[in-house]
TrEMBL record, chain A:
Pfam families: ABC_tran. The keyword Flavoprotein does not apply. InterPro entries: AAA+_ATPase, ABC_transporter-like_ATP-bd, ABC_transporter-like_CS, ABC_transporter_ATP-binding, P-loop_NTPase. It comes from Dyadobacter arcticus. This is ABC-2 type transport system ATP-binding protein. Transmembrane segments: none annotated. Signal peptide: none annotated. Belongs to the ABC transporter superfamily. It comes from the Bacteria. Residues 9-237 form the ABC transporter domain. Keywords: ATP-binding, Nodulation, Nucleotide-binding, Transport.
Automatic annotation (TrEMBL), chain B:
The lineage of its organism: Bacteria, Pseudomonadati, Bacteroidota, Cytophagia, Cytophagales. Belongs to the ABC-2 integral membrane protein family. It is a multi-pass membrane protein. It comes from the Bacteria. This is Transport permease protein.
Length: 256, 255
């Protein structure tokens, strides 16, 4: 019983098929409260399907799925009260300004001080200068920041981020990583999907790898590393990656 | 715990406020639904009007009902466009993962269509008044006109909803508007159907817009509406029921 209270998400034997296509063939995992959980998998492995089921957007065929103690099939309203979703594509209203987007979500969450909530998030996410511009003028990174800020309206304790850095440039990606780390340190549970191994390594306490509709391995990074042969000591010359070069040059320019 | 149903009207009004901003910030929408019908009214009254024999002494009086319907028909493509984009860009997904009533998002769009048409029709009537439109109709007749226009708007809006919700591309979503644009043109909106050749006349007299135009025209000129009003109402209510049923089904399937 005590164990259950410490769990934000519990999934047992989750199955979902579209006609002949078996997307999920018995998925099991648990996400501890306050942790960052990364679901790792290639395109089409079923990551988004899992996110949609967990966020009540999609009904599953069989299995037990509990989010914050609410069964997603029986108490979807309870789930929706306690979570927020940042979908695969930044779902911001492009015709509204950043501020209006945040106020919109605050009103839909029935908060009394919608303006104040929006102002705070604008400051926190570094959108002050752009707050009164239409979201259609935002860069990819800014759009994603606004998107995540919208998910934090109403202080959800569990945040779903479906491929939050796909399509972002390296700088914007690091910005998103910073945000996720801040969320984690403020005690929010983060459920994240990604196709980038590095992202999972950087952010996650728990990693699960989804392949062909089942979880093939899961555990902490240290546990996953144990599954591989012990490390050998080798001397190699480390060449900088293009990404490191890019970031070093851009960083220098910004300092100047 | 708060229930999502008790907030339905509040959520819907937030949705309405959002889409109304979309309408007011789209020059294209304002031009198509308000300025273009006004331009048509000017064109028909001051350029073509002299050659048109309608049997009334004041052509603006004859023309206004049709122009109002054209304005409403022109707005329909935008409703499906806005619905399609919300679907496509994951805005609906965001709303549906939140504790708000599922249909609030859809009804927000329907309400926006109604409210924005009320505004554009009001502007058109004002311009018509300046152009010499006069009506002897009483309050009750005006109320009936408003009711019929609202039903016509709802009928077209639900058709637009089906298109917007089920389309695979923007082009597909707005394609629904084109056949609808034609209905007022091939009706008694501009000239009496009696002047049309046989097959065109048969089509014009048996499609919904003519009976709606005739009903509004009779109401505004204080003439007896006869059977036309029942034909008009039957068309509107019939289309609303069928289109609402299918739109609801598509919506439930998609979300």
């Amino acid at each position: 019983m005590e164990n259950m209270q410490n769990q934000a998400i519990r999934v047992e034997g989750l199955r979902k098929s579209y006609k002949q296509l078996h997307v999920l063939r018995g998925v099991d995992f648990e996400v501890a409260k306050g942790s960052v959980f990364a679901l790792l998998g290639s395109n089409g492995s079923g990551k988004t399907t899992i996110v949609k089921i967990l966020t009540t957007l999609l009904k599953h065929d069989s299995g037990n799925v509990t989010v914050n103690g609410f069964d997603v099939a029986l108490k979807p309203d309870g789930v929706r009260q306690s979570i927020s979703l940042t979908g695969q594509f930044a779902a911001v209203d492009e015709i509204l300004t950043g501020r209006e987007n945040l106020i919109l979500i605050a009103r839909l969450r029935h908060l009394r001080n919608a303006r104040q909530v929006a102002d705070d998030l604008i400051k926190r996410f570094g959108l002050t200068d752009a707050a009164d511009r239409r979201a259609s003028t935002y860069s990819g990174g800014m759009r994603r920041r606004l998107d995540i800020a919208m998910s934090l309206v109403g202080n959800s304790q569990l945040v779903f981020l479906d491929e939050p850095t796909t399509g972002l440039d390296p700088e914007a990606r690091i910005e998103v990583w910073k945000i996720v780390k801040e969320l984690a340190s403020s005690g929010i549970t983060v459920f994240l999907t990604t196709q980038y191994l590095e992202e999972a390594e950087q952010l996650a306490d728990q990693i699960a790898i989804l392949d062909k509709g089942t979880i093939i391995v899961s555990g902490t990074l240290a546990e996953l590393k144990k599954l591989f042969p012990p490390a050998k000591v080798e001397y190699i010359e480390k060449q900088p990656t293009l990404e490191e070069i890019f970031l070093a040059i851009v960083g220098k320019n910004q300092e100047n | 715990m708060e229930t999502t149903q008790s907030y339905f009207f509040m959520d819907m009004s937030v949705m309405l406020g959002r889409s109304m901003r979309h309408v007011f910030r789209s020059m294209d929408t304002i031009i198509t639904v308000t300025l273009m019908p006004i331009a048509m009214m000017l064109l028909f009254v001051y350029v073509l009007g002299g050659a048109i024999q309608t049997g009334t002494d004041n052509y603006v009086n004859y023309l206004l009902p049709g122009i109002m319907l054209i304005a409403i028909a022109n707005s329909i493509g935008y409703t499906s466009y806005r619905l399609f984009l919300d679907m496509e860009r994951g805005i609906f997904e965001r709303f549906h993962s939140m504790p708000i009533s599922r249909s609030a998002a859809l009804w927000g769009h329907v309400l926006t269509s109604l409210v924005s048409n009320v505004i554009s029709v009001a502007v058109i009537i004002l311009v018509a008044l300046v152009m010499g439109f006069r009506s002897t109709a009483g309050g009750l007749s005006w109320l009936a006109v408003a009711g019929i226009l609202a039903l016509f708007t709802l009928a077209l809006t639900w058709i637009a909803a089906i298109a917007g919700l089920s389309a695979k591309s923007v082009d597909g979503a707005v394609a629904v508007a084109y056949p609808i644009h034609f209905l007022p043109l091939i009706s008694s909106a501009f000239v009496p159907t009696a002047s049309m050749p046989g097959p065109v006349r048969a089509f014009a007299e048996n499609q919904p817009v003519t009976s709606i135009v005739e009903t509004i025209r009779s109401l505004l000129s204080n003439q007896p509406v006869g059977n036309e009003i029942w034909v008009a109402l039957a068309w509107c209510v019939g289309i609303i029921l069928v289109a609402y049923f299918f739109a609801k089904r598509v919506y439930q399937k998609r979300v």
